[in-house]
Records
---
Amino acid sequence: QKEVEQNSGPLSVPEGAIASLNCTYSDRVSQSFFWYRQYSGKSPELIMSIYSNGDKEDGRFTAQLNKASQYVSLLIRDSQPSDSATYLCAVNWDTGGFKTIFGAGTRLFVKA
Amino acid sequence: GAGVSQSPRYKVTKRGQDVALRCDPISGHVSLYWYRQALGQGPEFLTYFNYEAQQDKSGLPNDRFSAERPEGSISTLTIQRTEQRDSAMYRCASSPNGGLANYGYTFGSGTRLTVV
């Protein structure tokens, strides 16, 4: 079992719709959770972080965390064609230091 | 500097040669990370440093890979006796925190290594 799992997609949504991206992770001493966006040919960029159970909103983005279910999600409201990218889920574990493990990413296409 | 700088951007080397990849993190960032990313995959952890101390090298694939950060700033990832399977994008990232909590990373543009 991979430590951080995501559906590879592609996920296709129409412009203006809500895109829902999901991620599950292995049971470890998980400290913090992140979503990165990676445009084709570019480097990953951090868009959201979440540390506690519940929802965290930032503009059109909402991250949701459920530690009991080992589940983290990202909702993108009013999706735009510019949101088309690969979204990487990342989990940070306390291994005596901290290291972040990334999922394989979900490709999102927003159709105009 | 303003961002994480990696050099070279592209490196083509012959099988069996040694290569050195350089990373200059954001000024003042305590933590520095090396990842490798294959096409269509997420970044794969290699190693990381807090200041000059290598905290975790569990992701280095074998003893041909090594990394250092002697003065707690610039880091070098060295691959000895390169093999074709080493071909990938090598990404460096830095973070300000020093490991007590994680605020996420800033990635450099990466070095595309091709072993022929």
---
Amino acid sequence: QQQVKQSPQSLIVQKGGISIINCAYENTAFDYFPWYQQFPGKGPALLIAIRPDVSEKKEGRFTISFNKSAKQFSLHIMDSQPGDSATYFCAASMKGSGSRLTFGEGTQLTVNP
Amino acid sequence: DTGVSQDPRHKITKRGQNVTFRCDPISEHNRLYWYRQTLGQGPEFLTYFQNEAQLEKSRLLSDRFSAERPKGSFSTLEIQRTEQGDSAMYLCASSLGWAAGYTFGSGTRLTVV
């Protein structure tokens, strides 16, 4: 059972544009929603995370928008740069699960110069 | 402290052989996780430790897999009688407490031929 669905699978954006990646979850017990960035040959790196008591969190060019009623959250990358080209994963976990993360399938982002 | 380190980075083995991977977490992190990632997919949870206690194992972790974390420091993941389906990237991560974000290592890429 896939509990976190991510879209799109791939995304091409021009330099300076906005990249938007969406995730939907099923389990209402999830209470922590991080986004990870992964470059080829590297492990995922935590970008930004949100808890369901807020609807938006911004860190630099990265913003998470969270819609609890729709069970959806999204990552917005403002002023996208070629260096942002990577695979992005959303994830979710719930208290009591030992912080076990359930990941989405990933979005391969390409930012063209 | 240079983060989470994993050894080896790459391992090629023949089907039926046993392999062992090592993970050295960030020293002050009490939680250690193992995930498996196949090409084009998000990481899948295998198991986690809090200090030296293995608190949860995924159903993905067949009886051919065993993980240890003696003395709550480094961890090993052993796969016995490897199968071609075991070919994947094995990722280790550590965190401090349940609410903290993970730090992943760069992974061990296993190829079973």
